[in-house]
Specification:
- The structure is a single chain.
- The chain contains 6 helices and 13 strands.
- It is of the alpha/beta class.
- It has one domain (4-206): Rossmann fold, CATH 3.40.50.880.
- It has a 9-stranded mixed beta sheet. Strands 6-5-7-10 form a 4-stranded mixed beta sheet, covered by helices on one side.
- It is globular, with a radius of gyration of 16 Å.
- InterPro entries: Class_I_gatase-like (IPR029062), GATASE (IPR017926), Imidazole-glycPsynth_HisH (IPR010139).
- GO terms for molecular function: glutaminase activity; imidazoleglycerol-phosphate synthase activity; lyase activity.
- Heterodimer of HisH and HisF.
- Residues 7-194 form the Glutamine amidotransferase domain.
- It is found in: Cytoplasm.
Length: 209
């Protein structure tokens, strides 16, 4: 039957595109779901996210039992987890968009507005940009250097530099990916990043952290 990958539907993700990209990358069964029981039984979990940190957090916590199911499956069951864009930002302790909103606190840090250090720098950070590996490579080869598609106005600032898997540059360094144990998050959109993005998703489907 192959592995079941749970793509969490909490009203805040680009689900159709992400599901299609996962299938193109080799996923045998993608379960688009808002059911905590499906998440609890999944082999791998993907949390997408489009919109503000606050609205995404409200959507995720608004599904009774979902955060508990995710936490149990990932931190107790050891299922590989991928957060995309705001789904990556939700791994943080808190987000500062539209006030302070708590995150999952799976990777300590906070999500802050990108500072405009140069008038030529546009916010949101939108379009193709380089992805350079972090110093410590906590994702064990999952994230590779290349070029990916970004769209965000806020960025993840982790407390521990050892959790930074990749960086990009937009008027200064911004975290492009974070990782800790069996959890990885990418700020860019793999589903919009063509060959680079599909390659990353394919590696995630084989990832055994």
């Amino acid at each position: 039957m192959g592995e079941v990958l749970a793509l969490i539907d909490y009203g805040a993700g680009n689900l159709h595109s992400v599901a299609n990209a996962l299938k193109a990358a080799g996923a045998s069964k993608v379960a688009v779901t808002a059911d905590p029981d499906v998440v609890r039984a999944a082999d791998r979990i993907v949390l997408p996210g489009v919109g503000s940190f606050r609205s995404c957090a409200q959507g995720l916590w608004g599904i009774a039992g979902m955060v508990d199911a995710m936490t149990e499956r990932v931190h107790v069951g050891g299922a590989p987890f991928l957060g995309i864009c705001v789904g990556m930002q939700l791994l943080a302790t808190r987000g500062l968009e539209h006030g302070v909103t708590k995150g999952l606190d799976w990777i300590a840090g906070e999500v802050q507005l990108i500072e405009r250090t140069d008038r030529a720098i546009k916010i949101p950070h939108m379009g193709w940009n380089d992805v350079a590996l972090g110093v410590h490579d906590p994702a064990s080869g999952l994230v590779e250097p290349g070029e990916a598609y970004f769209l965000h106005s806020y960025h993840f600032a982790p407390d521990d530099g050892h959790t930074v898997a990749a960086m990009t540059d937009h008027g200064g360094g911004l975290v492009a990916a974070v990782a800790k144990d069996n959890v990885v998050g990418v700020q860019f959109h793999p589903e919009k990043s063509q060959v680079y993005g599909l390659s990353l998703l394919s590696r995630f489907l084989e990832w055994k952290p």
